[in-house]
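Researcher: Going back to the complex we discussed earlier. I've cleaned up the inputs and rechecked each line, so this should be the final set. Can you rerun the prediction on the complete assembly and write out the structure?
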Amino acid sequence: MTAAVPAMTAPVPARTAPVLEVRGLSKHFGGVQANADIELAVAAREIHALIGPNGAGKTTLVAQLAGMLAPDTGSIAFEGRQIQALAAHQRVRAGLARSFQITSIFRRFSVLENLALAVQARSGTSLSFWRPRHEDTAIFEEARELAQDVGLADREEELAGALAHGEQRQLEVGLALATCPRLLLLDEPMAGLGPEESERMIALLAALKGQIAMLLVEHDMDAVFRLADRISVLVAGRIIATGTPQAIRADAAVRAAYLGDAESAQSGPRSR
Amino acid sequence: MNQRSLAIAGIVALALLPPALQALDQVFYIGFAARILIYAMAASSLNLILGNGGMLSFGHAAFIGAGAYTVGILAAEGVGSAWVAWPLAIVCAAAAALVIGAISLRTRGVYFIMITLAFAQMVYYILVSMKAYGGDDGLNLGSRSAVGFGLDLKDEFTWYYTCLALLAVVLYLLNRMTAARFGRALEAIRENETRMEAIGFATYRHKLVAFVIAGAIAGLAGALLANQSSFVSPKLMHWTQSGTLMVMVIIGGVGHRYGGLVGALVLLGLEELIAEFTLYSQLGVGMVLLGIVLFAPQGIAGLFQRSATRPLP
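Model: Rerun complete. Updated structure for the full complex:
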């Protein structure tokens, strides 16, 4: 039943320098070790999935990579450059964008306005006090293209808060895409999506595959195995395995810790 | 354009007010009207950060005080030229806003309210203790600032039109600013600051710039207020003054481009009107405020126009 991953136009580059290289990253909250000695490398243009049970520390890891949470120890290199000292917005400008597990959009602005803001952020200064913004047609043109890309072309004028949940998730990814990232941190893009909406999201990510590297945090195993080039498994704050989907599927430790349940749930009749 | 004709109509009406008052033999009210214009300027500056930027600053009176005392102290030292004193008032207030904002904007929510209030109170007590410049008793300017060109600000008509012209310029600049990239970024920070950071905006820097601009305008309003009564005292920056400005913004319309103007007009007008009939004018004002918060959360200006947060056409 699972459709094959669309044939990749370009093979994932073999062992070129990774876009993202995380070394010895640890974070604890009080007595809880959220991330312990994380080692992770995302290769250029690959989709690297990060899976693990609830509470494994996936969102904590994403927050640290995005610069919204400071790690206790460890280093993060993006395109060979150490980025721990950079603030969240500086990392975005460097080419590392994120989406949120809990939808974070400008609910009272239109879809077009949401995307235009993200385009504005990277094109020229926003300390512009005189020229009316609606004359700034370039940012709205780009925003229209982005709306097209994420499948919201016919919803441009709608207030973001009035969109259906699935459309809001598309906008969420659209906002991250609008920053022109070279690495996209996607925190559960399928969260709360129905089967059709999930299909649309998978198609959207598959279309981006090969252009932008992605670290895909996801619970939807169907999506993960269809999209990912490699998978890392995070359990109780530690990465217990990294490898190709086939290798992960076969990994005994992973099966024991996590995947067995998800696999059987997937191959059995859909209960939910 | 509708928006433009509304602005022109408003300016014409305000410009016709003094002759109208003179015809009605109510020249006394020209000074009162000038006072409203000055408060409108101060409230509009607060509306930039409170309404557009979502920063609940409870210390805005500090910048009014900084501007007023710049004029007062310069006058005491023998500098009476408006061309020197007023720009300096703006610069001093902006500098105060830069320092206070740089520290306060590191906090959020209720902490931001409290820290801005604390700073304003600090400024208040510093000036209370400055005996050389009147301390608690305040400082007499002797006369209004000199502008030259054969104009005398002591003339109530000249004074009124000076205030009106400056208010018009300030409102024009604010409107220009809020319709530009900066204004949209500021509103978006109010809507969702985390997301703004996540699309690459330096949100702290943008908020600080807005805070300094608001402080600078409040400084000009302070300079005018010092001239209005030819007197400055620490009362100008008492925390209740910050509260009054907030009430004006809420009555007028939080985030509405004319919220500050409408709020100052309604609140000061109402106080004056109710004071005619009763000693308990604050009670009446309180009731009106209650009614507005309950039935017109967008403020009075918001009743006539869609919210400023609506997307651009």
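Model: Worth noting: Chain A touches chain B through 42 residues (CB under 8 Å).
Researcher: Good, that matches what I expected from the previous run.
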